[in-house]
C-alpha cells in the first residue's frame, strides 16, 4: 500500500499528499500551521481566512459539536492579513494556500492588490462564502456581484487565484455559478464552505447552542457530506478542466475521501473531523483510503478521479 500515489496538482504545484485542512480548523496561528505542514500525511495548508485587520470574531459560545457534525458562527477570528502573508512568504517544504476574506468587495480588491504587490508567489484563495459575519451576505450567492468582482480583480491580479464557494442546492444555480467562474483564469475552487445558517435546538434546555445570530450558524461534518459531494460533482461537470476542485465537507472516513475523488476532487480538506480527532485523523484517513485503493487495484488517485458511474 505504501507505493500508492496520493498526489494532486493545482496550477502546476505538486501536492505530494491529497490532504489539506479546511480553512478555519487548526490554522489560525503559525504554530498550528507548522503542525499541519510537519505532518507527513498533509500535502499543504490553507490559512485561516485573513481579513485586512485582525478580528476577534463573534462572541462565544460560537462552535458546538453535534453527534453527526458541528455548527459554528466563528465570525472570522484571525490575526490579520500581515500575519498570514508573512507566514506564507517564508520558505516551506509544502505548498501553501493563503485564504483571504474581505468584509466587502472593496476589501477583497484591496487584499488582492496587496498580494499582487507582495513577493508571495503561491496560491491565494478568495473566500466568497463565509456565512457568519453579521450583516454580510455570502458574496458567491450573488452571481452578478461575483462576476463583477472577479472582472475587477483579474484586471490587475496576475498570480494564481482560486475561490472558496458556499454550497449550491439547485442544478440551475450550478449552471449559473459555473458560467461566471469559467470566464476567469481561476486555478481552483474550494467547495464547500459550511452549509450556512442552520439551527440546532437543545431540547433539554429549550435553547439554541451558539450565541451569535440567535443561534444560526454554519453546519459542517458528516451531516454535510452529501451536499459536499453533490457540489464537487456538479462543479466538476461544469467547470473548465483547468479549474481544479478542492473537495471540502463531511469527510469522516477513507471511504468519504474516496467518494470526493470519484466526484472529481483533486485534493481533499478535512474540517470538523480534524477538530474532533486532531492531526492523527490524517493517518487514519490515509490508512483507510489506501486500503480501499489497494482492494480495488488502484495505484494513484488519477485511476478513479472523476470517474463516478451513473445508472
Ligand atoms: C468563520 O470564521 O465564521 C468561518 C469561516 C468561513 O465560514 O469562511
TrEMBL record:
UniProt-listed PROSITE patterns: DHODEHASE_1 (PS00911), DHODEHASE_2 (PS00912)
Compartment annotation: Cytoplasm
Chief localization: cytoplasm
EC number(s) recorded for this UniProt protein: 1.3.98.1
Cofactor: FMN
Keyword Thylakoid set for record: no
This protein's pathway: Pyrimidine metabolism; UMP biosynthesis via de novo pathway
Molecular function per GO: dihydroorotate dehydrogenase (fumarate) activity
Keywords assigned by UniProt, alphabetized: Cytoplasm, Flavoprotein, FMN, Oxidoreductase, Pyrimidine biosynthesis
Reactions this protein catalyses: (S)-dihydroorotate + fumarate = orotate + succinate
Dihydroorotate dehydrogenase catalytic domain segment(s): 7-293
InterPro entries referenced in this protein's UniProt entry, alphabetically: Aldolase_TIM, DHO_dehydrogenase, DHOD_1A, Dihydro_DH_chainA_dom2, Dihydroorotate_DH_1_2, Dihydroorotate_DH_cat, Dihydroorotate_DH_CS
Quaternary assembly: Homodimer.
Family of this protein: Belongs to the dihydroorotate dehydrogenase family. Type 1 subfamily.
Protein name: dihydroorotate oxidase (fumarate)
Organism: Nicoliella lavandulae
Amino acid at each position: 500500500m505504501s507505493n500508492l500515489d496520493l498526489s494532486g496538482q493545482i496550477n502546476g504545484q505538486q501536492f505530494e499528499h491529497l490532504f489539506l485542512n479546511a480553512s478555519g480548523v487548526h490554522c489560525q496561528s503559525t504554530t498550528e500551521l507548522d503542525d499541519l505542514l510537519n505532518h507527513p500525511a498533509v500535502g499543504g495548508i490553507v490559512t485561516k481566512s485573513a481579513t485586512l485587520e485582525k478580528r476577534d470574531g463573534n462572541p462565544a459560545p460560537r462552535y458546538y459539536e453535534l453527534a453527526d457534525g458541528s455548527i459554528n458562527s466563528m465570525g472570522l477570528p484571525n490575526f490579520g492579513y500581515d500575519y498570514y502573508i508573512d507566514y506564507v512568504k517564508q520558505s516551506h517544504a509544502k505548498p501553501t494556500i493563503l485564504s483571504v476574506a474581505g468584509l466587502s468587495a472593496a476589501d477583497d480588491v484591496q487584499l488582492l492588490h496587496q498580494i499582487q504587490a507582495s513577493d508571495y508567489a503561491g496560491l491565494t484563495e478568495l473566500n466568497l462564502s463565509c456565512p457568519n459575519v453579521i450583516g454580510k451576505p455570502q458574496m458567491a450567492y450573488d452571481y452578478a456581484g461575483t462576476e463583477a468582482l472577479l472582472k475587477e480583480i483579474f484586471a490587475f491580479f496576475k498570480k494564481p487565484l482560486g475561490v472558496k464557494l458556499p454550497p449550491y442546492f439547485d442544478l440551475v444555480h450550478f449552471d449559473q455559478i459555473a458560467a461566471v467562474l469559467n470566464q476567469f483564469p481561476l486555478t481552483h475552487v474550494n467547495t464547500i464552505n459550511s452549509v450556512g445558517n442552520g439551527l440546532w435546538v437543545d431540547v433539554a434546555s429549550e435553547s439554541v447552542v451558539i450565541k451569535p445570530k440567535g443561534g444560526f450558524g454554519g453546519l459542517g461534518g458528516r451531516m454535510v457530506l452529501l451536499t459536499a459531494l453533490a457540489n464537487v460533482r456538479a462543479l466538476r461537470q461544469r467547470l473548465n478542466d483547468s479549474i481544479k476542485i478542492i473537495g471540502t465537507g463531511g469527510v469522516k472516513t477513507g471511504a468519504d475521501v474516496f467518494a470526493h475523488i470519484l466526484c472529481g476532487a483533486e485534493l481533499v480538506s478535512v474540517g470538523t473531523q480534524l477538530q474532533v480527532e486532531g492531526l492523527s485523523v490524517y493517518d487514519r484517513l490515509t490508512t483507510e483510503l489506501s486500503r480501499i485503493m489497494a482492494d480495488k487495484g488502484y495505484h494513484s488517485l488519477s485511476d478513479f478521479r472523476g470517474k463516478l458511474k451513473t445508472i
